Amino acid sequence: MKLYYSAGSPYARMVRMAMLETGITIPLTETTLRDPASGLLPINPVGRVPTLWLSDGVALTETLLILPFLDRLHAGPKLMPFEPERLAALGRVMGLLEGIAVWNRELRRPEHERSPGLLTLEARRANRVADALERGLAWFDRIDAGWLALTAAFGYCERRHTIWRWRDGRPTLAAWFDSAAERSCFVATLPPPSGI
Ligand SMILES: N[C@@H](CCC(=O)N[C@@H](CS)C(=O)NCC(=O)O)C(=O)O
């Protein structure tokens, strides 16, 4: 087994934090992305991280497929929730993360190629979800997929998407994040700053 990851990826970070929390050890392989020469492409044509290589011909892609697979490998509390409210909370944060990734990708384009409409759409989406989180963090009270998604999403914003002032007007969310950020799995997986 092997986990392909990139240091800046919040999705791969969710899996890396999950491994640290559950005590599962899987060798890590750092890979390049959006690169025709990437060592990931021969095993996963999607070319995204995280990718969990299980054996020749079996490479799991998509974070929310890898986490339940990890749950088969440890005896502790499950990472994937089953209660509808927790699943809904997880889904909102995955939607937030996806929106931030689209917003961030747009900002990596030359300024004259950026779509103002798309930037506005994604900023509004992110603010809506963050406002909902400010009003209710009850479903993020234990280390599960929701917790991993929430810490990875705002951990990304802290270092790789600082253009979004997500803390402004959201003291409850900011305090929750600052406390979660002290956890050792979070500290051990900090992404490099990107300058955005
Ligand atoms: N839906 C996927 C998203 C994974 C994803 O977008 N990963 C990014 C890094 S954060 C990636 O590998 N990008 C490379 C590309 O888009 O080609 C998941 O949940 O795992």
Short description:
The chain contains 7 helices and 4 strands. It has 196 residues and is α+β, with helices and mostly antiparallel strands.
Structure write-up:
With 196 residues, the chain is an alpha+beta fold. The chain has two domains: 2-71, Glutaredoxin, CATH 3.40.30.10; 84-184, Up-down Bundle (Glutathione S-transferase Yfyf (Class Pi), Chain A, domain 2), CATH 1.20.1050.10. Helix content is 49%, strand content 8%. The chain has seven helices and four strands. A four-stranded mixed sheet has the order 2-1-3-4, covered by helices on one side. β1, α1 and β2 (28-30) form a beta-alpha-beta unit. The longest helix has 24 residues, at 84-107. The model has no long low-confidence stretch (mean pLDDT 97). Glutathione binds at residues 9-11, 33-34, 47-50, 62-64, 101.
List the helices and strands and how they pair.
Blueprint: E1 2-5, H1 10-22, E2 28-30, E3 51-55, E4 58-61, H2 63-71, H3 84-107, H4 116-135, H5 145-160, H6 171-180, H7 184-187
Parallel strand pairs: 1-2
Antiparallel strand pairs: 1-3, 3-4
Glutathione binds next to helix 1 and helix 2.
Spatial strand arrangement across the major sheet: 2-1-3-4
| Main pleated sheet | 4 strands, mixed
How many beta-strand segments?
4
- Overall shape: globular
Please estimate the helix content: 40-55%
Average pLDDT taken over every residue: 97
What is bound: which ligands?
A: glutathione
Helical stretch tally: 7
Which band does the percent of strand residues land in? 5-15%
CATH architecture of the largest domain: Up-down Bundle
Overall CATH class of the largest domain? Mainly Alpha
Please give the radius of gyration in angstroms.
17 Å
Q: Could you say how many structural domains there are in total?
A: 2
